[in-house]
């Protein structure tokens, strides 16, 4: 338990930390900030918060608080949220109707196999229906493939071992599956990982494409019915850019001869690839998705001006105007329902 006088002092230091972090990020977005030793990144924020409050705060609440501050500098969360406490608003139940009632489901199915270790989280889950596979990627670098029966087939981290390993300190931020090349693709803050999950040869498990200039936050596959030995992926970064990268089987043959080898992953120079990009948002690209039924991609951001974009992937190369709309405080999530022919966004 925290003594009241110590807690008041710790809370004041915490609020000063948050204020300083907001000022730093505001300057950074306006191009006025120069990085120095006093920069507050996630690790520094986590360490300071843990020092101030000890075991009274949980890792997931620290991470959620940090991301909430970074995604919306104008409306900062209350300090209570660092302890997992949220102030609710009263609801007039007399005005409730069937349409706005919440349905509670208490039945759950659980996979007993532990996909990640302690202090790690899943950052991406992708279902591959035609191969009856499910792919997961953890924040600290563990890629996992499950079969239809949810049996663990292969489990490899970025290094190829069954324990967590980093080539660098970058976290995995998203994953998807390349249907034609049969590779798992994952992105970190500075690299693109291509994992040949079928390979049992330690010499040829995959490739790493780096360096990427900005921090990659999300990735998706562009599904096309051409059945060629190539796949196209879309990626979003922390500066509002969306990238288009097409990978062919020839790339693996031609480029790997010059590749530097790190563990069983061969490193490919990002400069050797043609990667068109276009700035579509003025803030982080939170999610990107390709809808084959619409032949369009969607990307969203907490940017209030360019919150959601829905257009052809050709717009990433020709720079013609894109179809977009604005939502106050931006969009965090979206999906498309083919049956109802509607796109739903969440802010």
From TrEMBL:
Signal peptide: none
Keyword Repeat: yes
SUPFAM superfamilies listed in its UniProt record: WD40 repeat-like (SSF50978)
Record carries keyword Repeat: yes
Alphabetic keyword roster: Repeat
Lineage top rank: taxon: Eukaryota
InterPro entries per UniProt: WD-EF-hand_domain, WD40/YVTN_repeat-like_dom_sf, WD40_repeat_dom_sf
The protein's name in its UniProt record: WDR64 protein
Lineage, highest ranks first: Eukaryota, Metazoa, Chordata, Craniata, Vertebrata
């Amino acid at each position: 338990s925290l003594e009241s006088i110590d807690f008041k002092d710790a809370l004041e230091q915490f609020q000063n930390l948050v204020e300083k972090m907001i000022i730093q990020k505001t300057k950074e977005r306006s191009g006025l900030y120069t990085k120095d030793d006093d920069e507050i990144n996630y690790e520094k924020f986590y360490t300071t918060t843990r020092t101030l409050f000890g075991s009274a705060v949980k890792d997931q609440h620290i991470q959620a608080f940090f991301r909430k501050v970074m995604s919306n500098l104008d409306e900062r969360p209350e300090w209570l949220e660092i302890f997992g406490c949220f102030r609710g608003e009263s609801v007039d139940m007399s005005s409730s109707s069937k349409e706005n009632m919440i349905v509670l489901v208490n039945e759950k199915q659980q996979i007993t196999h532990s996909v990640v270790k302690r202090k790690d989280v899943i950052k991406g889950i992708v279902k591959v229906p035609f191969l009856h596979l499910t792919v997961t990627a953890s924040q600290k670098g563990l890629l996992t493939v499950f079969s239809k029966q949810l049996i663990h087939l292969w489990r490899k981290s970025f290094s190829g071992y069954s324990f967590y390993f980093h080539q660098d300190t970058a976290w995995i931020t998203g994953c998807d599956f390349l249907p034609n090349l049969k590779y798992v693709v994952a992105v970190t803050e500075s690299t693109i990982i291509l994992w040949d999950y079928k390979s049992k040869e330690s010499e040829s498990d995959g490739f790493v494409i780096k360096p990427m200039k900005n921090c990659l936050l999300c990735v998706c596959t562009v599904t096309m019915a051409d059945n060629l030995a190539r796949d196209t992926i879309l990626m979003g970064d922390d500066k509002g850019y969306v990238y288009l990268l097409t990978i062919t089987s020839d790339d693996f043959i031609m480029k790997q001869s010059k590749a530097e080898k790190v563990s069983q992953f061969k490193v490919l120079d990002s400069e050797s690839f043609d990667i068109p990009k276009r700035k579509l948002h003025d803030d982080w690209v939170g999610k990107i998705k390709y809808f084959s039924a619409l032949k369009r991609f969607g990307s969203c951001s907490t940017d209030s001006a360019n919150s959601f974009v829905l257009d052809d992937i050709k717009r990433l190369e020709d720079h013609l105007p894109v179809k977009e709309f604005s939502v106050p405080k931006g969009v965090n999530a979206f999906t498309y329902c083919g049956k109802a022919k509607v796109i739903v966004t969440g802010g």
